[in-house]
Amino acid sequence: MSLLLLLLLLSLFSGVSAEVPLTRTHVTSVPGFNGALPSRLETGFVRQKFFAIMFYLTMTRYVTVDEENGAELFYYFFESEGDPGSDPVLLWLTGGDRCSVLSALFFEIGQQPNSKQAPLSPKSVRSCGPLKLVIEPYNGSLPRLHYHPYSWTKVASILFVDSPVGAGFSFSRDPKGYDVGDVSASLQLVKFLSNWFGGHPEYLTNPFYVGGDSYAGKIVPFIAQKISEDIEAGVRPTLNLKGYVVGNPTTGERIDYESKVPYLHGVGIISDQLYELLNEVSKPHILYKKCIYMSLIPKFESMDRKILKEELGILKHRPPRPSIQCVSYSNYLSYFWANDNVTREYLGIKKGSVDEWIRCHDNDLPYTKDIKSSIQYHHNVTLNGYRALVYR
Fold first, then answer.
1. Rounded CA separation 42/330 (Å)
2. Count of other CB atoms within 10 angstroms of residue 298
3. Is 92 within 8 Å of 71 (Cβ atoms)?
4. CB under 8 Å to 180, separation ≥6 — which residues?
5. What pLDDT, on the 0 to 100 scale, is given for residue 335?
6. What kind and span of H or E run contains 19?
7. CA–CA gap between residue 300 and residue 305 (Å, rounded)
8. How far is residue 134 CA from its own chain's centroid?
9. CB-count burial class (<10 Å; 0-12, 13-18, 19+) for 315
């Protein structure tokens, strides 16, 4: 008699629910990508329950972090292409406001060779994750993906999480679940990690790092401190925390914005000429020229008008169409890839959870910035002997 049938019979006679061990949701291929994925991809695990009398099956696909409001975080887990049994495991978060971690997967993690040439060719591929979007004029079909050989997944397993609740494909059944902040969202991520590693005990001995960029860089050291405190307190499962990494991080301090270039100019490190030049480049990518993210509607040819009409029919929050020469054109393509019904089916997106995938929310969901400064957490964690990497 199978374990599944045995549990079912037990539940029928006992009148209580019976849980089946976790079943992981493996994705063997994704739309737009030709061929096998570079490594194993997991987008959630399933917990199955059988109930007596009612006799039905329920499945929880994401990781629940707020039972009261039904808030669940969606994730993408790419196993290392090297030695997943011993390679580090990295939690990676992206910034905001409430940007989807799909941005990190497609655009951020890894090295980008010949980045100076990236804006010059419409056929070039501009992104930095294990998968990246092929930059080509959008024609109404599903955008294509291409393998990125310089991803960090070459040497580490990466857990990309849509956080806070409301980012990407993460959602809450009760609207109250979207009302989070720096502290509560960080604690939800600590709970997420406890649940995730509880379902993946084979990774507990792997070196573990917390990472993030931009605004996520503000909460990464806070999360690292909470994990280190749990380790000291003997909380199970015990993560093998080694340190954290933050890129272009926000700290909450006044010096975060607008002070870098004026300071360097004021103390004579950069010349007047360079100072004027730096004011004309893109802040996120100083090697690129500033791009207009939303331009006036041009006079389209007949085909362009047809494509635009199709795009507006698909999405309620239509993304601006930048020039294909802009770095942001890949962001534009991501909307059509993530909102395609076939993509959602392959990733196992729960129907009715997220009506429309939006790369970044613009203050349309409540969020409290209640970590005024992350400097104390940087100080505490590094004093406890954990390694830290801060880069720009």
1. 24
2. 8
3. no
4. 164, 165, 188, 366, 367, 368
5. 93
6. strand 18-27
7. 6
8. 19
9. middle
pLDDT at 8: 42
**Beta carbons of 344 and 337 less than 8 angstroms apart:** no
CA-based nearest residue to 288, from 112, 96, 76: 112
Length of the chain (residues): 392
DSSP 123: T
What pLDDT, on the 0 to 100 scale, is given for residue 83?
A: 95
Ranges of the chain with pLDDT below 70: 1-25, 44-61, 109-129, 257, 280, 282-315
Largest CA distance in the chain: 82
Domains of the chain: residue spans and CATH: 25-44+64-255+330-391 (3.40.50.1820)
Distance CA 164, CA 177 (A): 10
Beta strand residue intervals within the chain, DSSP E = 18-27, 41-50, 57-60, 63-66, 71-73, 75-78, 89-93, 131-133, 145-147, 157-161, 171-172, 180-181, 208-213, 241-247, 367-368, 387-391
The answer to whether residues 207 and 83 touch, using CB atoms and an 8 Å cutoff, is no
HSE-CB of 346 using CA atoms within 13 angstroms: 17
